[in-house]
Design a protein that fits this description.
Blueprint lengths: L1 E7 L15 E5 L3 H5 L1 H7 L3 H20 L4 H29 L3 E8 L2 H15 L35
Antiparallel strand pairs: 1-2, 1-3
Helix pairs in contact: 2-3, 3-4
Amino acid sequence: MAVYTVHAPASFGVDVRTTPDRIVFIRDGFYFWAFVAGLIWLVWHRLWLATLGYVVLVVLTQIVLTLLAVSSGAEFVVFLLIAALLGLEAGSLWRWTLRRRKWRELGVVVARNEREAEQRFFESFSNSGVPLSRGSASSLHPLPRSSITEDATGFFPSPGVPR
């Protein structure tokens, strides 16, 4: 099962049923195509600032590796690590870009694929009638109280309690 975050533009109204095509589901996990073709993936998703950072990182890395006269095998490993890092952090870069563009996070959905995530999100929305916005009282369910006391962790006393 994958975890998806659900995002909508800030200008988006309260009712997600009016324009559901504007909602974006971002999977948390490894993005294969960002790993294989990082620059193309970043441009495809219009992550312009991340694209600029990626290009600067690759160019500076190439300059440093050339100045250090590193072997081609070592260069390959370094660029493979950069590609792997982009594949691992692609979803976070996408979320960061949406946050920078003032998009709202409407909620989190656990599903097998994006289609199922969409179905679960809209079903839960239609059943409750309230958007699953972050911080709204309807989307936050209280957690059960633990039987473990605060002092069970040992080294960290509660604030304001004398030692």
